[in-house]
User: Fold this.
Amino acid sequence: MPAGIVGALMSVVGGRLYDDKGVRFPIITGASLMAAELITFACLSQQMSDLVILLVYIIYMTGMGMSIGAIMTNALASLKPEFSAQGNAFLNTIQHLPAPLGLL
Assistant:
């Protein structure tokens, strides 16, 4: 739950960064945080306590929250206005479909 809260809060920060600095900054920053977390898990997962796992996962959700909104906004901005509903439906489907299939 703490990681989910941080991810939700960071989506607001990512949106502000998107408005102020453009699409590249929140995406690159978020992807860098997620990559750092994945490397940390890959290298240190055998020695991590539960608290460290939580803290490292919070870093992942910080990056995810910061970047996913900017990615979706930028993708939808590239569509013609008459296709925005279809684009939004497609992104929501892509975001939710893998979970029930066990791919996440």
Notes: The chain has four helices and no strands. The CA atoms of residues 31 and 80 lie 27 Å apart. The helical segments are 2-21, 24-44, 50-77, 84-96.
